[in-house]
Amino acid sequence: QGQALIILDGLDEIPISVQRSKIINIVENFVDTYVQTPIDVSVFDNIYLNKLFDDPSRLGGNQLIVTTRLVNYYTAPLAGQFSHYTIRPMDMKHIKDFVDYWFFRVHQRIIDILGLPLVNQAENYSEALKKELEKTQNVDLLDMASNSGLLSSICTIGFSQLNGSSLPTQRILLYEIIVKSMLNMWHSKEPTIDISKVIRILTDIAYCIHQNPTSNYIDNEEIKEICAQTIQASISKTLLTTEDIYNIERQASEMAQVICNDVGILASRGGSLYGFLHLPFQEYFTCLKLIEVDTPKHRRFASDGIDRDNKIQLIVQMLCRHTIDPRFRVPITLAFGKISSSWSQNDFNDLCYEFMQVQDKDDSLLPFAA
Q1: What 3-state class would DSSP assign to 21?
Q2: Which residues of 167-258 form beta strands (DSSP E)?
Q3: Which of 49, 164, 282, 284 could disulfide-pair with 276, CB 3.0 to 4.6 Å?
Q4: Are residues 301 and 334 both part of a single domain?
């Protein structure tokens, strides 16, 4: 008694609302009452004691660890003299250990399930991926691999790669492979649902969330509304009947359930709120919204020069609308990466020229590493 270690995991998953404030107050009251030193001092009593509390072996008493992602924490932080620590990204040693363990466990699981009389060959795959991560030109790949959630997806891609084939080094291309891999895995179980429609819905959800500087979540009702808009846009009718509206609402409700619970890219964040499983997924789909085109690699625009110029102007306007917003820095960078990898060089050059012209007029800063 009085020597417990209490771990509160996922404070960031509480919605930023009155509900979150209430729960934080409950946590603070709990801490003030039960997480004290043997001489009945809590983090709310003395502003100079926070470092002293960091040595449980010397001080004793109940101890509390609260975990949260940095996103949204400081909009409603815990009061009191809590000591804050940021877990640093995995370094190369930890990344390699993760890769070795991941491939060994996956291979062993397959061998066990199929009852195969084989020796675990995981080392061949793990060594290939580790060599990719060690390449000096794969800076973006290594940066993503420092995130355990993304590293798991990277391992999945590495597992499916043919012997000797390399992973893409451009961040946007790697994101595309990860997202498409997840969507294809889901689509194999739900082949009747249009995957392009799912992508459009996720794109609109990401853009909706990303425009909100105070939260990375979206309510289920908003998701239903986005689904309804996408479904309605796919209907050729201009005048909808009561039955049409009913069917749209029914399909939207079903689609929202699929998007939220089955696809695996969104995750429940408590109550009726949902967010992207990883921030890079949100940034990737926001990037797709910014450019609003899905041009196959090396395809030129239609010969109609006016149509081509209009597309460039619309995309430039969309990008410039968000250049001063720091939250859009990564999506804009991804957007340029997407365009550079899928448009012809001349079209890409023209878009960059138009973009820089607008930036010069507005005296804005260009995103680096585009």
Answers
A1: helix
A2: 218-219
A3: 282
A4: yes
Between the CA of residue 32 and those of 58, 181, 213, what are the distances in Å?
Answer: 20, 47, 31
Strands 63-66 and 218-219: unpaired
* 3-state DSSP of 267-301: EECCCCEEEECCHHHHHHHHHHHHHCCCCCCCECC
Q: What is the pLDDT of residues 91-139, one digit of tens each?
A: 999 999 999 999 999 999 999 999 888 888 888 889 888 988 888 777 7
Tell whether 229 is covered by a domain.
no
Domain identity same for 115 and 68: no
Helix, strand or coil, per DSSP, at residue 66: strand
> What digits encode the pLDDT tens for the residues 235-273?
877 788 888 888 999 999 989 988 887 787 888 777 788
Structure tokens at 100: 């070795």
With respect to residue 55, please indicate whether it lies within any of the assigned structural domains. yes
Q: Looking at the 3D structure of the chain, how many domains does it have?
A: 3
Same domain, 30 and 97: no
> Which residues does residue 268 pair with via DSSP β-bridges, in sequence order?
274
Q: Are 231 and 252 in contact (CB under 8 A)?
A: yes
DSSP secondary structure string for all residues of 95-142: HHHHHHHHHHHHHHHHHHHHT------HHHHHHHHHHHHH-TT-HHHH
Q: Are residues 59 and 109 in the same domain?
A: no
Residues in the chain, overall count? 370
On the 0-12 / 13-18 / 19+ scale of CB atoms within 10 A, 290 is: buried
* 180 belongs to a structural domain: no
Task: Measure Cα distances from 147 to 34, 152, 248 in Å.
Answer: 34, 9, 39
Same domain assignment for residues 348 and 298: yes
Q: Which residues of 100-109 are buried (b: 16+ CB within 10 A; e: fewer)?
A: bebbbebbee
Classify residue 223: in a domain, yes or no: no
Which DSSP symbol is given to 162?
A: P
Among candidate residues 169, 186, 201, the one where a domain is terminated: 169
pLDDT of residue 307: 80
**pTM, rounded to two decimals:** 0.65
User: Are both 65 and 96 inside the same structural domain?
Assistant: no
Q: In the listed set 29, 49, 75, which residue is the last one of a domain according to the structure? A: 75
